[in-house]
Amino acid sequence: MTSLPPQSSPQPSPGPSPKSSPRSSPPSSLSRIRIGSAPDSWGVWFPDDPLQVPWRRFLDEVSESGYEWIELGPYGYLPTDPDVLREETARRGLGVSAGTVFTGLHRGPEVWESTWAHVSEIAALARAVGAGHLVVIPAFWRDDKTGAVLEDSVLTPAQWRHLATQTERLAHEVRERYGLRVVVHPHADTHIDSEENVTRFLDATDSSLVSLCLDTGHYAYCGGDSVKLIETYGERIGYLHLKQVDPRVLAGVRAEELPFGPAVARGVMCEPPSGVPALEPVLAAAQDLGVELFAIVEQDMYPCPPDKPLPIARRTRAFLRSCGA
């Protein structure tokens, strides 16, 4: 995710400083941006799947690529024992920036108990390994593999109210119980996707509780302008996912009304700097916010050959260094 006021609420510690790592580079023009990667960039979408690389290989390769931060990915892919996970990440010079959860909070208070059971388990692990954030992704309105419509793509006014109030409740509980900052991730095929829906969500929620994880690829996929969003709602940008879209593939996806899963398999998310949006102005706008931000590379590639991610990760890290990050 223009010089704007500092964030309005205290920031949880993001974990051990990358400056303590022997692989840290000298201060750059993007000194406030902490670059990392995620299991998603290795084709990992599920806790266990024969098409995915084993978790040890992921940790080895993300470290070899020059990254110092990771996300947990789908709960259960990486070890859920905090002691094991701390040992495995620490010996590779890696810190954990965030955990990720999927929620359907627009469905109202009746889903709270099941949502909290899921969220609390992941939040506890994230906090135990030094993360400071919890990325919250809204539920898909259509199946990301089959395209089957699961519910209406447009929320009713009552569902918008549920989404806002239940997200605020979740953010409050996660902050109070685990010390984590909730960052909501606008995502393709969810109800928080386009500029219209993202701004409606932001305007409906408390800025002291709810921030955004701005995913540059998903926002471009849904027609949004990341730089404009940062410049307009800078105080709400709490976290970034760096991703690019291939505009030619996207045009076909839109023409055929493909769901997100088949769009990814077709290559709609591409290796930077070959797609949109350009990441240099996004990173510059984020730097100008005057706060420290994680910027986690996520190139959706499920499924992909096991030898494909590492060379891409190395090239992407080199590209981001050339941008000053």
Description:
The chain has 325 residues and is an alpha/beta fold. It has a single domain (30-322), classed as Divalent-metal-dependent TIM barrel enzymes (TIM Barrel), CATH 3.20.20.150. It contains eleven helices and ten strands. Strands 1-10-7-6-5-4-3-2 form an eight-stranded parallel β-sheet. Strand 3 (95-103), helix 3 and strand 4 form a beta-alpha-beta unit. Mean pLDDT is 92; it is low at 1-27.
Question: In a nutshell, what does this entry contain?
Answer:
By secondary structure, the chain is α/β, with parallel strands linked by helices. It is built from 11 helices and 10 strands.
Fill in the keyword field for this structure.
325 residues, alpha/beta, TIM Barrel, eight-stranded parallel β-sheet, two-stranded antiparallel sheet, 11 helices, globular
Q: Could you outline the blueprint of secondary structure elements for this entry?
A:
Elements: E1 33-37, H1 55-64, E2 69-71, H2 82-90, E3 95-103, H3 112-128, E4 133-138, H4 157-178, E5 181-184, H5 195-204, E6 211-215, H6 216-221, H7 226-232, E7 237-242, E8 244-245, H8 247-256, H9 260-265, E9 269-270, H10 279-287, E10 293-297, H11 309-322
Parallel strand pairs: 1-10, 2-3, 3-4, 4-5, 5-6, 6-7, 7-10
Antiparallel strand pairs: 8-9
Helix pairs in contact: 3-4, 7-10
Q: Can you give the mean pLDDT?
A: 92
Q: What is the straight-line distance between the termini?
A: 14 Å
The arrangement of helices and strands along the chain is: EHEHEHEHEHEHHEEHHEHEH
CATH architecture label name: Alpha-Beta Barrel
Which range best describes the helical content: under 10%, 10-25%, 25-40%, 40-55%, 55-70% or over 70%? 25-40%
Instruction: Please give the largest β-sheet.
Output: 8 strands, parallel
CATH class, anyone?
Alpha Beta
Number of helices: 11
The Rg value, from CA coordinates, equals 18 Å
| The CATH fourth-level homologous superfamily | Divalent-metal-dependent TIM barrel enzymes
Order of neighbouring strands in the sheet with most strands: 1-10-7-6-5-4-3-2
Strand content: 5-15%
Shape: globular
Q: What ranges have pLDDT less than 50 throughout 5 or more consecutive residues?
A: 1-27
Within the CATH hierarchy, at the fold level, what is the topology? TIM Barrel
- Structurally, the number of domains stands at 1
Protein name: 2-keto-myo-inositol dehydratase
InterPro entries: IolE/XylAMocC-like, Xyl_isomerase-like_sf, Xyl_isomerase-like_TIM-brl
Organism: Streptomyces populi
